[in-house]
Amino acid sequence: MLEILIKPFEYLLFGFISAYFIFALLVWRQVVLLTESVRTGSRYISLLFAVVHVFLSFLVLVAAVAIVF
Amino acid sequence: MDKLSKLAYAKNPKNVEFRDQRNGEEILFLLRGHPLTNLCSFLIFLFLLVTPFLLRIILKDTMLDFSLFPSSLRILLFMLWYLGSLGYALLSFLNWFFNIYLITNRRIVDLDYFGFLFYRLSEAELSQIQDVTYSVSGLLSVLFNFGDILVQTAAEHREFDFIAVPNPAEVHDIVTDLAEERD
Fold first, then answer.
1. B71 to chain A nearest CA, in Å?
2. ipTM associated with this complex
């Protein structure tokens, strides 16, 4: 009985994590555009953060696939 | 000037260029909001980090006790929560980092970035500047010497707000002097 309730919730969380991965990609793209608009000496910090964010989101997505399916 | 202010205040910055920069145009100032304006976001981020542990203590022995959930669900919730927290921190940082104000020897440029899908670059020639005012208000602003500068122009984008920039009096003086020179 509990399994019936839990599984849809897991799918829902997986959906959120997938959406988050797309969001992380969009943020990365936005950061690339912004660093092209204004090139400051420290622009690589923001690019690094954005790339690490995408990478972590991807790792979490892979882990979620392994858990849910 | 304190070390924190230097993160948001660069005089004659090197290695800085912007799209649409003209030949012979020099960047005199690169400004951002004072780093202390991120204090609230930083505290929220810290709160987000400890919330799962707090909830675990608060909800213990209730119907929502986390230990009653299957481990797969707990891991998914945990990952999603921390991913969201990280995203919040990143967006707060980017909001601060890319809200840039540039003063060149020909014009002022304001790059506004908020949300995560919106940015706007506005500019006005120095000769179009009509009025410059600055204000320092609030405890932190007075202690750390940062404030808002409002530049009114005759350009298409009429008002430029430089929010919480360090050393507003000096910036105000320089903008006014540059505008007078260009008139």
1. 10
2. 0.91
